[in-house]
Design a protein that fits this description.
Layout (H helix, E strand, L loop, with lengths): L1 H17 L3 E6 L8 H16 L2 E5 L7 H10 L4 E5 L4 H10 L4 E5 L8 E4 L3 H15 L4 E6 L5 H17 L4 E6 L6 H13 L4 E5 L3 H12 L2 E6 L10 E7 L6 H9 L6 E2 L15 E3 L11 H15 L13
Helix pairs in contact: 3-4, 5-6, 5-10, 7-8
């Protein structure tokens, strides 16, 4: 009887554990890139910290291998597969048809189906603030933007927001733009940045994953200033990176994880925007990182202006126009 009771307790305990969702975080970026890939890894770790769920991680997936990778992870019993990267959208839709009980989240995505959701954050709202800051601080009235690949809708929006923010401060500000066509080449990012610096740019925003580290390096070499993307990148060059627009890894995946856990998944496109500060209440997941060592170097009037603009965006009194609108 004791043996039977122990067996029943064992089965009860393990049946409870099996109800917890198994989650995979997959990306074609690198978890070590201090930006886009690092954000996905940190956001996945938050799922573990908050819920204790099993999370499987895989980075550096080649684009041609995305569909095969998704099938492998669906077949292995993951309940939620988080696909970090725009390129994962169409493969996710295709694989999802064959695995109707598996949920897929594409970040940053523009696709949806019964078991596929996307998060398309309004990063351009934070980029607007960076453009305003760069325009106020620039001595040459020339600022730069270096992107990874022009075909990405969110990248077009970020550039557009950055430009609008700069023009709102000084309509004569010149915004240089280059797309390097490569997310993993610091040398290409560096060359694009050096070209912009030679053309007079003294503030540079990159959205180029590992290639963006070359942008920061170029700014450091030439004594100019850089603005980071997705993660707080000040640590890459503390005297060069003034601030970054960041995605809140504590909240980014949480609504979808909760939906899966509660059995209430809704396959649609979510568009969370600006939040006042990291971990603020509400559904916003985009904000600015601290100024770190630049806190006392930026005039209070400039910081006050950024705060005013942020409040206007939060209150929907200021609408930052999008180049690519999914609604």
């Amino acid at each position: 009887m004791i043996a039977s009771l122990l067996c029943s307790l064992f089965l009860l305990k393990n049946s409870g554990a099996s109800t917890q969702p198994r989650i995979a975080v997959l990306t074609d970026a690198l978890f070590s890139d201090a930006g886009w890939g690092a954000f996905s890894y940190n956001a996945g770790q938050e799922i573990i910290n908050k819920h204790g769920y099993q999370v499987n991680f895989l980075d550096n997936v080649s684009i041609p291998d995305i569909e095969k990778t998704l099938r492998n992870y669906a077949e292995s019993g993951n309940n939620l597969i988080i696909c970090q990267g725009f390129e994962w959208g169409d493969p996710a839709l295709k694989v999802a048809k064959d695995f109707p009980n598996t949920k897929f989240l594409v970040f940053t995505g523009t696709v949806k189906s019964e078991n596929v959701a996307s998060i398309f954050p309004r990063q351009h709202e934070a980029a607007y603030l960076l453009g305003a800051l760069a325009s106020m601080m620039s001595k040459t009235h020339i600022i730069g933007f270096v992107g990874g690949d022009k075909k990405y809708p969110n990248l077009n929006n970020i550039y557009e927001g950055y430009k609008q923010g700069a023009m709102s401060i000084n309509p004569s500000t010149k915004v240089l733009v280059d797309y390097v066509g490569d997310w993993d080449s610091p040398s290409k990012g560096r060359q694009a940045a050096l070209s912009q610096i030679d053309a007079g740019a003294d503030f540079l925003l990159h959205v180029a994953d590992t290639s963006g580290q070359g942008v920061i390096q170029a700014a450091k070499e030439r004594g100019k200033f850089a603005l980071g993307a997705v993660s707080d990148q000040n640590k890459l060059a503390p005297d060069t990176v003034v601030t970054s627009f960041i995605l809140d890894e504590d909240k980014a995946y949480e609504p979808i994880v909760k939906q899966v856990n509660d059995g209430k998944f809704v396959g649609k496109i979510y568009t969370p925007g600006l939040e006042a500060t990291k971990n603020s209440t509400g559904d916003g997941i985009v904000t600015l990182a601290p100024f770190h060592g630049f806190e006392n170097k930026i005039p209070n009037s400039y910081k006050q202006k950024i705060n005013e603009l942020a409040k206007e965006i939060l209150d929907k009194k200021l609408i930052v126009k999008e180049m690519f609108n999914i609604s």
